[in-house]
């Protein structure tokens, strides 16, 4: 897979240099554009790694999130209506068969809030490991630099100390983000 993705990266980079492609085409090309502009220190291997994550890790988590999103939208016609209105407004600004661009995606403000809320309420990943970057004391425990610490995002996202009415599906909680 890595060999094929490296070749795709080289081919796409060539297409970019010859003007046959743009960053609006897809995420892979967008990363190559960032790399070519020098705005990010991405190597081809970094781009290949990101592509593998999108291909492999995103499959089951995406299907779980989409399933719960459909359930939430079916149970809340107001939220569904707002998303539909936003999407129809973008569709009206496009020509027939004109594809979406990254600019179009950036206009999906309410849709993005709904996506953030679905990620908060139905986190597809219970938690993750992080490496302590320095020695710390936490509630009487010493955690040395370099130790692996498990963070439980699912528990944090449903904690009333951080979110008002944490089990309620409410995209407006992200109005100021």
Automatic annotation (TrEMBL):
GO biological process: sterol metabolic process
Transmembrane segments: none
Record keywords: Iron, Metal-binding
Keyword Iron: yes
Keyword Zinc listed: no
GO MF terms, alphabetically ordered: heme binding; iron ion binding; monooxygenase activity; oxidoreductase activity, acting on paired donors, with incorporation or reduction of molecular oxygen
Pfam families hit by this protein: p450
Cited SUPFAM superfamilies: Cytochrome P450 (SSF48264)
Family note: Belongs to the cytochrome P450 family.
The protein, known as: Cytochrome P450
């Amino acid at each position: 897979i890595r060999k094929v993705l490296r070749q795709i990266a080289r081919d796409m980079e060539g297409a970019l240099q010859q003007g046959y492609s743009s960053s609006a085409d897809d995420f892979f090309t967008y990363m190559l554009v960032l790399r070519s502009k020098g705005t990010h220190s991405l190597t081809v291997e970094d781009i290949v790694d990101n592509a593998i994550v999108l291909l492999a890790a995103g499959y089951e988590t995406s299907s779980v999130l989409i399933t719960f999103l459909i359930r939430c939208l079916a149970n809340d016609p107001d939220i569904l209506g707002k998303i539909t209105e936003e999407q129809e407004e973008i569709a009206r600004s496009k020509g027939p068969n004109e594809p979406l661009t990254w600019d179009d995606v950036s206009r999906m403000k309410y849709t993005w809030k709904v996506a953030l809320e679905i990620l908060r309420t139905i986190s597809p990943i219970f938690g993750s490991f992080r490496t302590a970057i320095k020695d710390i004391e936490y509630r009487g425990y010493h955690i040395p630099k370099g130790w692996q610490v498990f963070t439980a995002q699912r528990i944090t996202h449903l904690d009333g100390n951080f979110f008002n009415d944490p089990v309620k599906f409410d995209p407006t909680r992200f109005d100021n983000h």
